[in-house]
Amino acid sequence: MTNLSQRDIEHIFERLRSGVVPERGLEAFAVGIDRARGEMQRQLDLAANNEGVFKFLRGGYGCGKTFMARLALLDAQANGFATSFVVVSDNDLHFHRFDDVYRKVVQELATDRCDRGALGFILDRWIARMEDAAIDGGANPDAEDFDAQVQQRIESDLASLTGGKAPEDMTRVLRSIFALKQQNKFPEASALLSWLSGSENVAASSKRIAGIKGDIGSKEAMDYLQGILAITKASGYKGLVIVIDEAETMLRMKTDIRAKSLNGIRQICDAADRYPGLFWIFTGTPEFFDTNRGVAGLSPLHDRLKLIKTGNFANPRQPQLVLTPFDAARLKDVALKLREIYPTENRKQLTNKVTPEFIDLLVDKVTQGFGGDVGIVPRQFLRQLVNILDLAATEPDFDPMRDGGYDLVELSAEEIRIRDGLPYFEPESSDAEQYAVTF
């Protein structure tokens, strides 16, 4: 049995019951992704060696893009990276507004020791290193001017790490956060930490403490991200991995917002080498990449990301990494792995009821709801499987071969469109047009 904590096992099944990808323990039921995972590890190695890199995970609905992205983040944390997982939203994440992107990225910062909102933790690690460096340099930690010496090191270190490009307000806020914590004024320090995280709801009185006005805007947001990256590395992490999940959501946005968002992605790709140690991961459907409504409609971005195939082969080292759809055998392997780790006090009862033969039948029945297309049913299949595992473990008289349990649970809007053979988005007359390049 895979070596997982009870907490992680419970997390896995609770998330699968809701039809969403778990955030931990994914390796326990990962199958058929060794090649893709190896390529993601290669990119992590590049980032660890101070390269700025990006990768686009390409796959149809149900191909496991989110699963692969989440697994990449777990691998990144195991390799000493900080991470952030951001889902594209119709309402509060427009990719041309870099302040939106920055806020989401920083709010979702995580490490192997802090699940979310890890900026404060990372800053504390960095400041502790500055204090240790001051002491190693001969400073007396009991001297009255010790804090002033540490502050000076914080400012000079940030300037050195960013090549002097750190925004002045960022330096002011970091200086004030350190001073406030030394004075045990933690609420005031927390307010400034919120401001540094991109919050637009910090009181003017808190901003005055640091001598700043306004909020982090779109024009300077990427400079702030460069500063956060530099601090993350200076605190002991190898770099930062950012996932932007469900990029195809942009296809449902208004034409002008789509155009600006795609241009924003182009700018990020073009500037990747200016962010050593930063690894961007985007996930998207073929429609996102191949239609004029998406990447294909912006020539410079399409030229950078274009998928090249030789026969049936696609080089995994090109910008788009193609994820293969599930097949019946892979679904069965996942089911058997989940059955193995399912938490129960009566494993014999579970395995006698949820047999390999029953799993074969479940694959067939669930797939029928999608016209036999196995590639788009993993979420539904896993929800049904976990429901049956629950019943088999808790109901002594339940017999899945007799009592069924094959009916599909409620479908999402996207699944209904796929089932009915409809495109991911409603066509518009402007879909045939190309987007203008903006800077």
Portion of residues within helices? 40-55%
* Secondary-structure element order, N to C: HHEHEHEHHHHHHEHEHHEEEHHHHHH
Provide the CATH topology of the largest domain: Rossmann fold
Total strand segments? 8
Write down the overall geometry.
globular
Provide the CATH top-level class of the largest domain: Alpha Beta
Strands in their spatial order, largest beta sheet: 3-2-4-5-1-8
Number of domains: 3
Radius of gyration: 24 Å
Distance between the termini: 53 Å
Structural class: alpha/beta
What is the overall pLDDT average? 90
β-strand percent reads 5-15%
In short:
Helices cover 51% and strands 8% of the residues.
Structural commentary:
This protein has 439 residues and is an alpha/beta fold. The protein has three domains: 164 residues, Rossmann fold (3-Layer(aba) Sandwich), CATH 3.40.50; 97 residues, no CATH class; 92 residues, no CATH class. It contains 19 helices and eight strands. The strands form two sheets. It has a six-stranded mixed sheet with strand order 3-2-4-5-1-8. Strands 6-7 form a two-stranded antiparallel sheet. Strand 6 and strand 7 form a beta hairpin. Helix 5 packs across helix 6 and helix 5 crosses helix 10. 40% of the residues are buried. InterPro entries: BrxD, P-loop_NTPase. It comes from Chamaesiphon minutus (strain ATCC 27169 / PCC 6605).
